[in-house]
């Protein structure tokens, strides 16, 4: 069970009823259900629904950044500041301010301290933050994503996948692409990594976002 350095395990997160976090319990549950329902929708419908939910949430928190971070937690259950910076394109200071706000409201709690990578230049160890009641698997998945995002190769692949998503998938209003088309996109960029490595990572990224990749 993930319970290191004074952080909270799943059982402890579920039993945290003091403070303001308990008041948000049902509110968070409703949001998570609404967002999970979108898994059955196509990408365009999902984006439209999330945008509408985001607009409403901005009014609740009086901050677009806090609203985005809150919705991310509702979708994934857990995150680190580094993940938020990359996944939501937030400045570092903004990500930390949003986390501080959500923590002060009792919405997120520290779940796990992240081990430093060998190339780390020092500073405090990153923290995986989680919603009350989030599962250990959500925390573990967040931890894996944190380390993945530290990889230069993955960052390049994510950029490629985002470009494909914005310039090909969304503009053409489709929800599928062939692996060969991904390979063509990667080759055209002349990046300093093996084309199949980047293409595979990009394909995985797109799959995780509901895009069918034909091989």
Please state the second-level CATH architecture of the largest domain.
Answer: Orthogonal Bundle
State mean pLDDT (0 to 100 scale). Answer: 80
Question: Hey, roughly how much beta strand do the residues contain?
Answer: 5-15%
Sheet/helix structural class: mainly alpha
- Main sheet: which strands, in order across? 1-3-2
Number of strands: 5
Description of the structure:
The longest helix has 21 residues, at 152-172. This protein has 10 helices and 5 strands; from the N terminus they run ααααβααββααβααβ. The protein has 2 domains: 10-139, Arc Repressor Mutant, subunit A (Orthogonal Bundle); 152-214. 60% of the residues lie in helices and 9% in strands. A 3-stranded antiparallel beta sheet has the order 1-3-2, with helices on both faces. It is globular, with a radius of gyration of 18 Å. With 215 residues, the chain is mainly α. α3 packs across α4 (64-76).
């Amino acid at each position: 069970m993930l319970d290191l350095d004074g952080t909270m395990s799943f059982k402890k997160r579920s039993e945290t009823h003091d403070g303001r976090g308990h008041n948000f319990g049902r509110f968070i549950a409703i949001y998570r259900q609404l967002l999970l329902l979108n898994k059955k929708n196509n990408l365009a419908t999902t984006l439209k629904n999330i945008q509408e939910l985001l607009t409403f949430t901005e009014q609740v928190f009086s901050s677009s950044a806090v609203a985005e971070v809150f919705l991310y937690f509702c979708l994934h259950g857990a995150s680190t500041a580094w993940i938020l910076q990359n996944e939501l394109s937030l400045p570092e200071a903004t990500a930390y301010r949003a986390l501080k706000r959500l923590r002060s409201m009792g919405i997120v709690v520290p779940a796990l301290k992240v081990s430093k990578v060998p190339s780390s230049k020092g500073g405090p160890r990153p923290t995986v933050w989680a919603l009350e009641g989030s599962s250990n698997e959500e925390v573990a998945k967040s931890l894996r994503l944190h380390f993945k995002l530290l990889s230069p190769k993955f960052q390049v692949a994510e950029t490629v996948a985002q470009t494909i998503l914005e310039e090909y998938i969304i503009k053409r209003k489709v929800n599928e692409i062939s692996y060969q088309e991904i390979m063509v996109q990667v080759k055209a960029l002349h990046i300093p990594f093996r084309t199949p490595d980047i293409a595979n990572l990009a394909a995985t990224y797109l799959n995780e976002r509901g895009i069918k990749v034909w091989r």
